[in-house]
Amino acid sequence: xxxxxxxxxxxxxxxxxxxxxxxxxxxxxxxxxxxxxxxxxxxxxxxxxxxxxxxxxxxxxxxxxxxxxxxxxxxxxxxxxxxxxxxxxxxxxxxxxxxxxxxxxxxxxxxxxxxxxxxxxxxxxxxxxxxxxxxxxxxxxxxxxxxxxxxxxxxxxxxxxxxxxxxxxxxxxxxxxxxxxxxxxxxxxxxxxxxxxxxxxxxxxxxxxxxxxxxxxxxxxxxxx
Length: 225
What we know:
Layout: H1 2-27, H2 33-52, H3 59-67, H4 69-92, H5 98-106, H6 110-127, H7 131-155, H8 160-189, H9 197-201, H10 203-224
Helix pairs in contact: 1-5, 1-6, 1-7, 2-7, 3-6, 4-5, 4-8, 4-10, 6-7
């Protein structure tokens, strides 16, 4: 039972972190607090729906979606860097676009939704409880995390260019994760295998993202020189 509770704590902490990422997108943008409550409520409803569907969805399909995480996150990394740079450029020109660009940081990708659904299924099977109750628990944690973190980030009084910087940082973090984590796993297992076609397929995305990041850094250096 101790292991089961450890699983629960781990899942809820993961949901808490995911909610804080969403809250950061909301808190550093210029959207109103009503929209933040609406977004948190949307996540709450999604969690309830996921909990109620745990007995009807094939887990293999979710695993297939989660297996595409490398490709999805490589695309997301490029989008985060590009949109983050766009947010900063517009703000420096006197235009606030954070009320639109925050969506990329605050809305979940398909892989994150699949992981959230798998979390609900694990909780249901571990404790043999009603899926709706699990969805309620996950939804409450999500809602509280989104709203409270958005409120705290808003209290910092940062400008929308902070949102752009966070998006660029997360995009770079995703890229480094895509490059380093598979290599680390191979080193740990000490089992060298041929490079998969999926890994080769994301190389153009990574190269493109590096060029975008290089241009952004060059512009930053030029502006401060």
